[in-house]
Amino acid sequence: MPKITASSGNLRRSLNSLYFGNSQTARRFRYGLVIFDILTVAVFLIMALIPQQWWYIPVDIAFAIALTAELAARLYADRDPRSQLFTFATLSDLVVIVSLLLPAFIDNLVFLRVLRTVRLLRSYRMLSDLRSDSSWFRAHEDVVQRTAIWSSSSFSLPARSL
Predict the structure, then answer these.
(1) Closest C-alpha among 119, 15, 160 to residue 4
(2) What is the gyration radius of the CA atoms in the chain, in angstroms?
């Protein structure tokens, strides 16, 4: 695991090696991000299926903070962060973060959060890792991607808004 120190140059190198490196540690880190993304989407889907609760806004804000921190780390790790500002992954993360913060002020925008699923499967780095590490994924990639896209569109209308 790369050592993270107070030096911003070392922090940037460490983050860069985790987000974009080829080491086993980098792959584990990115798989950890996938697990976080899957859990995040699961929470979003569960919250869409149950009536509004008092704890929704604090949970949304906590997820917004975590996703903002991950986005900031990813941009900081990139050698050219400005080139990443208008990528699908960054824009979808920004939409998800805004959809988490706005319910404190307006109606719930949970349907926008499913972009997280689509973003996850459009991460070319992650797809490359999965192809090289999993023969099962190589054999079933098309089915996995189509299922994720179908499920994200199927759950885009929250049950409590119907």
Answers:
(1) 15
(2) 17
Residue span of the structural domain in which 99 resides:
8-161
pTM over 0.90: no
pLDDT tens per residue across span 5-51: 556 679 999 999 999 999 999 999 999 988 888 888 888 878 878 88
Name the domain count of the chain: 1
Within-domain flag for 1: no
